Protein: Endonuclease/exonuclease/phosphatase
Amino acid sequence: MSSERSEVSQEAQTLALAEQRRLKKEQRQAALEKEAEERSRILPREWAVVQDAPGIGWHTRVMTWNLLAQTLVRRELFPKSDCLKAAQRENMIYREILSHNADICCMQGRHSSIEVDRLTKLLPVLEGAGYNHVYAAGPGKKHGCLIAFRKDTFDLAGERMIEYDLQEIRSGDEAAKRGSSFRTRNIASLVGLRRADSPSEGVLVATTHLFWHPSQAAILLREVSRFRDELSPAESPWPCIIAGDFNFPPDDAAYSLLTGDPLSPEQEARLAASRVVHKSIDPNVPVAPEAATEGAEEDEGAAATESDPDKVITNARPALPADGLLTDAELADMLRQYDRPTSVYDEGQRICTAASTLERELTFGNRAPIPAERHGAYEPNWTSYTHYWKSVLDYMFVLSPPQRKVIVTRLAKPHRTEAVSPGIPLKGVCGSDHISLGAELYLPSPS
Structure:
C-alpha cells in the first residue's frame, strides 16, 4: 500500500509541476503579448462616410503614408519625441499600415522613402497580410518607394520607374531640354493593377516623393497619362490614383498649377524666386561656407530646412534663359495638355463639411485662408506635424476616365491638432512624422 501511495504522490507532484510550468508559460506569453500590444499601440482613426456610390462599379480602399527614414532621425529635429529608435517605431508602423485594411498601399518616407535595410522586416509583414509589392529606388539611393496590393484582388499588369532628373521637358540642347534646377535623384513608381475577377478592368497607381518645385509635378502627371494610354484599353482607359509626398502645401503654386487654379501674385513671386540652378547641376557655383553636406543637399536638392522651406537656397545661382527652366506659362501649358487630377481629400472633406459630418477644424482652410473658388481649403489640417515642422505635404489624387467619375465614398479622418502635439512620432500615437491618408473609392465600370 505504501508503494502505491508513493506512486500516486509522485504522479501528483509531476502533474502539479507540469501545471506550474503551463501557468508560467501562459503568464510569459501574456506578458509578451501585452508588451507587443504596447509597442504597436497607435491612435485609432475614425472613418467618415462621404457619399453613396451610384450605379454599377467596384470599390477599392487605398492608403498612402510617408514613413520616417531611420537614417534621418536626429534628436535635435524631434526633441519632444519618445520613440526615435527603429525598434520603438516599427511595430507602430506595421499596425498603422494594416489598420487601413487597404487593397492598395503606397509608401514613401520623409525626404528619402523606405530604407532598404528596413525592407527585410516590412516585406514579411506585408506578405503575411496577403500583399504582393513593387519596390523602386533612385540611382545611388539606399531607399525608394513601395506599392503593395492584395494578391487575391489584383494582378500586376505593368510597372515603370520615372527618374525625374532624366526627363526632357522640351527640345534643344542638353541643359534646355531638361531644364533642371537641382539633381534630386527623386523618382516615381508606377504600376498597372488588373482586377483578378475582371481582367479587362484595372487601375493605374503612382507613388512618389517630389522635389518641391512644380516642374516635377508636371512631369509626373505627363508620365502617368502616358503610362495609362499605353497600358489600358483606349476605349475604356483605367482610372489613375496618384499618392505620395508632394512636398508643397495646398496654398503653394505647385498645388494650384496641378489642380488647374490660376496663380496668385504671391505665388508668382515665390515661384520666380525659386528659379535657381544648384551646384549639383552647375559645378561652377561656389559653395557657401555654411552649406550642409553635399550628400544631404543632393538627397533633397537642398530645398529646405526643417524650419523654413522658402528660405534662400544655398549653393545656387539665379537661373539664366539658357538653363531652360520652365516659365509660369510653360508650366501651365504643360499641365493643360492632360486631364486635371482631383484631390480625394479636398473633394471628400468638402462634402463632409457641408453635410456637417466632419469638423471644420480638421481642414487646411480652417487655419490658412484660401478663397472659396480655389482648390485646397479642404485638404487635411496636417499631414506632417513635428516640434519644428508642421505642414500639409501628402496627397491622394485621382484621374477619372471620360464619363466615369471616380467617387470618394469614405475617408480616414485627420487627427486633431491636440492629439499629435507636441509633435510626432509619439508612442501610442504615430510611428512617423507624417500622418497617413486613407480613402475608399468607387470606380465605375465601363458601360
